[in-house]
Amino acid sequence: MIIEAIKIIGIVLILVGAGFALIGSIGLVRFPDVFTRLHGPTKATTLGVGGVLLGTILFLTVQGEKGVVRELLITVFLFLTAPVSAHLIAKAALHRRCRSVCAIPAQEPD
User: Fold this and answer.
1) How many CB atoms sit inside 10 A of residue 107's CB?
2) Cα(50)–Cα(56) distance, rounded to whole angstroms?
3) Distance of CA 108 to the CA centre of its chain
4) Under a CB-based contact definition with an 8 Å cutoff, are residues 33 and 98 in contact?
5) Three-state DSSP class for 55?
6) Total domain count for the chain?
7) Comparing 26-40, 54-68, 81-95, 96-110, which segment has the lowest mean pLDDT?
8) In this predicted structure, what is the pLDDT of residue 100?
9) Structural domain range at position 41
10) Distances (CA, A) of 98 to 28, 29, 31, 92, 95
11) Does 103 reside within a domain?
12) CB 83, CB 45: distance < 8 Å
């Protein structure tokens, strides 16, 4: 009974993660400029792939499979690198003076 409940929770996490990834990819296509487009993929990476990996961890644990450590390492790596990469893309867009829908404040010299 408990094993079936954990399997269902894992499947729900996988489906929710896939939904976040879908919404993030739609946001990437629909948003008008670089700065707003960053939000979609960043959220999709953090929540979507994170949800899929956590669901996979639960499902593999119940099945008795090995490889849970690999999924944990991937999850930690994604949670650490997604915000950093989004920040660097935004900084590069500011440096190239990309067009923005909103007014961008004056950049301070480094």
Assistant:
1) 10
2) 10
3) 30
4) yes
5) helix
6) 1
7) 96-110
8) 66
9) 2-95
10) 16, 17, 14, 9, 8
11) no
12) no
Which one is predicted more confidently, 88 or 105? Answer: 88
Q: Give dist(CA 24, CA 73) in Å, integer.
A: 23
- Phi, psi of 3, deg, nearest 5: -65, -40
Work out the average pLDDT over 76-86: 87
Over residues 3-62, the pLDDT tens digits come to: 899 989 999 999 999 999 998 888 888 888 887 888 888 878 788 888 999 999 998 888
| Domain assignment present for 100 | no
**What whole-number distance in Å separates Cα of residue 43 and Cα of residue 20?**
8
Sign of CA dihedral 56, 59, 61, 65: negative
Query: 40 lies in a domain?
Result: yes
The mean per-residue pLDDT over the stretch 82-98 comes to 83
